[in-house]
Amino acid sequence: QQPESETVHLFIPALAVGAIIGKQGQHIKQLSRFAGASIKIAPAEGPDAKLRMVIITGPPEAQFKAQGRIYGKLKEENFFGPKEEVKLEAHIKVPSYAAGRVIGKGGKTVNELQNLTSAEVVVPRDQTPDENDQVVVKITGHFYACQLAQRKIQEILAQVRRQQQQQKTLQSGQPQPRRK
Predict the structure, then answer these.
(1) How far is CA 152 from the centre of its chain?
(2) For the segment 127-148, what is each residue's pLDDT rounded down to a tens digit?
(3) Alpha-carbon separation of residue 80 from 84, 99, 127, 167, 170 (angstroms)
């Protein structure tokens, strides 16, 4: 079974857009092929927007490759100082009913995530879910920290989905397969 496609919104300095796209879109096309992901750059929020959103859609491995290359390109093009760690903000959407699981009791899970990954993970409170009943989780950090946090959150979501499937099966009164 192939891994599900994920969508991650990565925020890059607006000035770096040209470097990511490349001449006549060559760089972004290559990047997309290399990673096996769809990579699109959203229009600027306004004329003085400091950040631009890169929308990356693809399975986990493609996410890793695409995001890794983008972080690398920003470092290479000196958008960050030589001693500065490239830190970007990534947003992933989670079903609103699962947001509590990402946060954990009293913020326990989100704190563990932050300690483990050294990325900043924020599930903004009082967020109104979008039309798909999803809320945004913001992850800020260097590449590996961001990746690890994304993976951990995806694992939590997979767990929530499995539990829901089990509950549906139980509710539908289907006999459960017996464990040997």
Answers:
(1) 11
(2) 999 999 999 999 999 999 999 9
(3) 6, 32, 31, 48, 53
